[in-house]
Amino acid sequence: METVYLGIVIFLFMLAVFDLLVGVSNDAVNFMNSAVGAKVAKFRTIIIVAAAGVFLGAIMSNGMMDIARHGIFQPSNFSFYEIMCILLAVMVTDVVLLDVFNTLGLPTSTTVSMVFELLGGTFILAILKILGDETGMYSLGDMMNTEKAFSVIMAIFLSVAIAFIAGTVVQYISRLIFSFNYKKNLSWTIGIFGGLSTTALAYFILLQGLKSSPYISPDTLAWISDHNSLLILGCFIFFTLLMQVLHWCKVNVFRIIVLLGTFSLALAFAGNDLVNFIGVPLAGYSSYMDYVANANGTGIHDFMMSSLMSSAKTPMIFLFLSGLVMVYALATSKKAQNVIKTSVDLSRQEEGDEMFGSSALARTIVRRATATNEFLVRVIPANVRNWINNRFNKDDVILENGAAFDLVRASVNLVLSGLLIIIGTTMKLPLSTTYVTFIVAMGSSLADRAWGRESAVYRITGMFSVIGGWFITAFVAFTVCALVTIIMYYTSFVGMFIFICLAVFLLVRSNIKYSEKQKAEKQDDIFKRMMASKDKNEILTLLRQHVRETLSDYIDYTEKTYVQVTDGFINEDLKSLKKGLNSAEEKRKMLKKRRRKEILGLRRIPIALAIEKNTWFHLGSNSCEQMLYCLKRICEPCKEHVDNNFNPISKESIADFLPIREELCKLMENTRADIENNNYADADDILVKGDTLKNKISALRKAQMNRLQETDNTSLKAAMVYLNILQETQELVSIWRHLLRASRFFQNDYVPQQEAQILSLAE
C-alpha cells in the first residue's frame, strides 16, 4: 500500500516538472512582455535578466507554500486517502489546463487555476462527507476555506478595473511629459522619473520579492517595515541623483528601468507563484511522510491529516531544482514566446497583423468612444488640443528596429505593475501578476493612441478574449477537478492510474501537435520586414512579393479544391465534398487577414504609386475571393445531391467533362507558375487559351442541354448539377484570367492603356 502511494507522490513531482515548464511558459508574459515589446536589449539578454530574477526568487521562496497545505481545505477533517485524491486531481487538471492555454497563446493565471482546482476537489469531497455524516458534525465551513474563493474572485474584478485605469492615466501623463520623441524632453525630468521608478522597483524587490525568503531574518524584515518612509526617501534621493548623472553620461536611463523592472517582476513571480507549481506535490510529499511515520496500522481512510496544519518547511534542494527547471523553461520554451506575442501584439504601437477578429461588443465600444471623442474635440479649446496633439505626434516616435512600442511605455508598464502589486499586498488583496501586468499594458497602449480606428475593434476583442479566458479558467478548473476527484475517490487506484496515463497522453499529444503547428505555420517574415522598413522601394518590393505569394497560393488552392469537389461529385464521396466546403470558408477568413496586411503595406508606398497600383491590387484580391465563392457555388449543390443519394451523373457527361477539367487545371498551373516566377512572357498566350476554353465549355453546356431534350433516361437532378458545374467552371476561367492580368500589372511598372480600358469593363 505504501509503495503505491510512494509511486503517486513520485508522479506528483513528475507532474510538477511539467507544471513548472508550462507554468513558466504561461507567466513569462508577466515580466518579459515590456522588455521584449520595446526591444530594450537582445532577446538573449532579456532572458538572462529574467532568468536571474526567477532563480533568485525560487531559492528564496518558502512561506507561500502554506496555501496548498491548509489555505483552501481544513486538512484535519480529511483522511490521507481523500487528501491524495484531491492533490492528484489538482495536478492532473492543472498541467493539462495550462498547457491548453499556452498552446492557444492566451495568458492565464496560475494562481486562479490552482486555487479553483483545490476548491473544486475539496468542495466535492466535502459535500460527500457532509451527506454521509449521520452525526451532523460537519459543515461546509468546517471542511473548506470559502473566504479564499471570494477573495480571488474579487481580486479579478479589482485588478482588471484598477490596473486598466491606472495604466491609462499614468501613461497619458508620462507621454505628455516626454512625448514620443522623448530624447528631446529629458533634461531634469529623467532624473526624477528614474528616481521614482527605481525606488518603486527597489521597494518592490524588498517588500514583495524577498518578504518570504528564509534567508531574511524576522528582525531585518521588522526593521524594514518600521523604517519604510526613511528607506523610500533615501532611495528616492540616491536614485534620482544617480539616474541624472547616468543621463549626463549618455546612458539610456529607460533601458536600466526596463531591465530592472523585468528582474524585479521575475523575482516576485518566482517567489510568490512557485507555490502554484510545486505546492501541491510538496503537500502530497508531506502527507505521505506523515502517514508512513505515524500511521501505526491505521488505514488510509481513517488517518487524518492534521499535520498539514503546520507551516511548510521546504527543503532547499526542492527550491534549487525548481529554480533550475524554471530557468530552463524560460530559455527554451517556444510556447512562452507565443504567449508573450499575444500580449505584445495587443499593445503594439503601429498597425499590423491582428491576431483576433471583431466582435459586436468591441464595435459598440468603439462607436461610443468615437462619439465621446468627438464631443471632447468640440469642448476642448483649440490651442489645448494642438498642444496635446503635438505631444502625441507619432511621426517623431523613437522605436528600436522591430519594436512594438517605445521605452517610455515599457518603463511605465513595469513600474506601475510593481506598484499596484505592492498596494494590493499592503491591502491584503491577492492581486494576480498576470492580471495586473496584462491589463496595465492594455491601458497604457490605449493612452498612447495605439488603438486607432483601424485596429481598436481587434484589440478590444483580443483583450476581452484574454479576460474571458481568466474566468473560463476558474470555472473549468473548479468543474474538471471536482469531476476528476470524485471519479478517483470511487475508483481508487484504477481511476488514479487511468488519469495518470490520460495526463501523460494529453501532454505528449499536445506537444507533438504544437510542434507540427509551428512547422506548418511559416512565420510571415515578409510582412514584418515590410512594416519595419523605412525604405519606400524596399516596402514596394516586399509588398509585391507578399501579393505574389497570396495570388499563387489561392490559385493553387482553387485548382486542387476544384478537382477534389468534382471528383467528390463524380465518385459520390460526401466526405470530400464536406471537406472542400469547410476548407473554402477557412481560406476566405485567411484571405481577409492577408488582404488587410497588404493594404497596410500599400499605404506605406509613395502615394502616387499606391493610387496607380490600387486598382490592380483590389482586382487580384477580389479575384481570389470570387474563386472561393465559385468553389462554394459548385460544392453546395454537389454536396446536397450526394447527401440525398440521388442518381449519379451519367458516364457520357463524365467523359465530356474530364478533358475540359484537365485543360483548365493545366492553364491554372501555368498561371501560378507565371505569378510565382514573376515572369509573364507567356501571359498573353495563356489568356488566349483561356478564352478558347470558355468557348469549349459553352459548347459543352449546349450539348448537355440538347442531350436532356433528346433522351428521357438522363437523371434531371444530376444533369442540373452538372450544368451548374459547367456554368461555374466558365465563370472560374474568367476570374483567374482577371487574376493573371491583375498580377501582371501590379508587379510591373508599365500598364498599357488599352488593357486598362478593357479591364474596366465587365468580362
TrEMBL record:
One Gene Ontology MF term: phosphate transmembrane transporter activity
Source superkingdom: Bacteria
Topological category with respect to the lipid bilayer: Multi-pass membrane protein
Record-level GO BP terms: phosphate ion transmembrane transport
Main localization of the protein described in the UniProt heading: membrane
UniProt entry keywords in alphabetical sequence: Membrane, Phosphate transport, Transmembrane, Transmembrane helix, Transport
Keyword Iron: no
Coiled-coil portions: none
Positions of transmembrane segments: 6-29, 41-60, 80-101, 113-132, 152-174, 186-207, 227-246, 253-271, 314-331, 463-487, 493-512
GO cellular component: membrane
Subcellular location per the Swiss-Prot or TrEMBL entry: Membrane
Family recorded in the similarity comment: Belongs to the inorganic phosphate transporter (PiT) (TC 2.A.20) family.
Name under which the protein is recorded: Phosphate transporter
Organism: Phocaeicola salanitronis (strain DSM 18170 / JCM 13657 / CCUG 60908 / BL78) (Bacteroides salanitronis)
